[in-house]
Structure formats: C-alpha cells, structure tokens
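Q: Here's a chain of 339 amino acids. Please give me its 3D structure as tokens.
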Amino acid sequence: MSDVPRARVCVDAVGGDFAPAAVLEGIDQALSADPGLDVIVTGPADVVEPFAAQRTARVSAVPTTQFIAMDEHPAQAVRAKRDSSLVVGCRIVREGRADAFFSAGSTGAAMAAATLVMGRIPGVSRPGIATVIPTRGAPVVLLDAGANADCKPENLVEFGHMGAAYSHVVLGVDTPTVALLNIGSEATKGSQLALEAHALLAEHLPGFTGNLEANHLMDGETDVLVTDGFTGNVVLKLLEGASKTILGQVREALTSSVISSIAALAAKPAFDRLRTSLDPDAYGGAPLLGVNGVCIIGHGSSNAKAVSAALRVAAQAVRGGLTRAIAENLAREHDEQQA
C-alpha cells in the first residue's frame, strides 16, 4: 500500500485535438508515475468503459451521451448539454466524487462549466487562468491569461492572492512575490486600470513588489505576475510564438552546412535542455483559479505527455490544499478590510 495521499482526478476523455488516444495514454503515464492517483474518465461509453475495465480499481468510467465542440458557444453549450463529458466531469467534482477536473477540450466551455457547475470560492468575483512561464530563474505564474478580457482593479488583487497560493502550493515557493505587469516600473506609470490596481495591490497584497515591465518577464524577478486577461493572453501567445521561431531558427542555423552540423553535435545537449525548459507540455496545462475545486485546462493540442503532466499538477494541487489556500488568502484579506 502506497503512503502517497490519494488524489481523485476526473478526466474528460474526449477533449482535445488528439483525444481520446492521447488522453488515455496520458492517464496511463500518470497512473504509472503516481501510485496515489485515482482517475474517473467521462466520455462515450464505447471509449471510457473498455479503458476502465482493462485497468485496476484506480480507474472508473462515467459514460456520457453528449460532447461540446470547439466552435460551440461556451455558456449556451454548457447549459444545453448537461450530459456532456465536460459538464458531468465538473458535476462529479461538485458532488465530492473527485477532487479535481481536467479537460483539453474547449477552453471557454471548460471555464463556463467549472464556474457554473463547480461554483466560485467565496470572495472570488472572477476566476482567472494561470499559466506557468519558464524563466532564467524560477518559473513565473502569469494571470489572468485569458479568462477576463476586461477587468476591474479589485480583480487583479484577487488574481494576486490566487496566484500566490498556486505558487506556494504547486511550485513550492515559501513566500511568493507578486508584481503588476506594466509599461514602466514607477507607480505613476500605466493605464487607469494599472494605476488603480497598483494602489490596491500595494495596500492589500503581502509580497507585492510593484510594477514589472514585459522585457523583464523572463528574468525571473517575481513569482507571480498579474494583469488583465486581454494583456495576459497577448503576452502568452507572443512568448509561445517567439520561442517556436527562435528554436526553429537555431535548428536551421545548426544544420545549414557540414561544419555547422558537426558543431551541432556538440551543442545538442545544451539545445535539448533549452527546448525542454521552454516546453509548455512540461507544466501540464493552465489552472482555472477561483472555482470551488481544482480545474486544469489543457491546450487543445495536448499530447500524452501534456495530459500526464496536467494530472500530476492536479494531484499536487489537491494534496497541497490549493482551493483551501485560496479561500484562506481571500478570507484573510476580507477580515483585514473589515478591521
């Protein structure tokens, strides 16, 4: 019997471009790596039932009859398709049969289902998507990365509390620092949103270090970086595109001639380390912070490695009490405001 605390994760078996094959393979990888992991799979009966039947008691199946496609309106689909793999998975968490939910399906539908079905943690007005960004130092938690295009200053304070809890529980940072993404380091710089958010963060958020410009994002100068969802999503996609372009150009340069190809053999270990450090699959998807339960949303192109990493992160968040930590951070903030 393993001494690892149990973590029950519900998985949408049919979410993602390479589902169900990549999802099921990723579950197998996660089960092999984590003896304390139990999985519930939702999806069509002919997919999930044979998969569960061929595994141990650590895997169970909950067949569903509906599926939410990528091009459907998220909130409308969630309300109309109550027996979809997404909605049923979130319901299983709400009912306490699982501790966490993962899907690589429609991001909008996953956010809507988690918010509407699982509900929000008390004190959270808007859940936010967090993304772990590799840097030259420790990784940085960026949020919001796309859940809320328009934000109020107080939303960014909530993001700061939630991001700090995630950094502590999942990334192991004892006392996370939090910065505000801005166009200058001075407190007087930025849009009206940034100015008001800076004042609130400085007043209400322990560990707030001030503004951080985008050109210092990859320096690892902060543990958590908060911004509105529109800006955060632009930053995230710019980083993804830039890393792919740079790695591609390096690869082309190292294979452009016989001499450079010989040099590439010597550089391969360093190049492989760089590629691994920039691999988004290693961080296992993006947590939707602020809902009443752990919810990890995978990229639509998630492969088995990404699914396995997402389940690892979900289990770690469950065992570390992420939902409770967020609730405690926000409750403490509320009590201080009332004092």
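Q: Can you summarize the key feature?
A: The mean pLDDT is 90.
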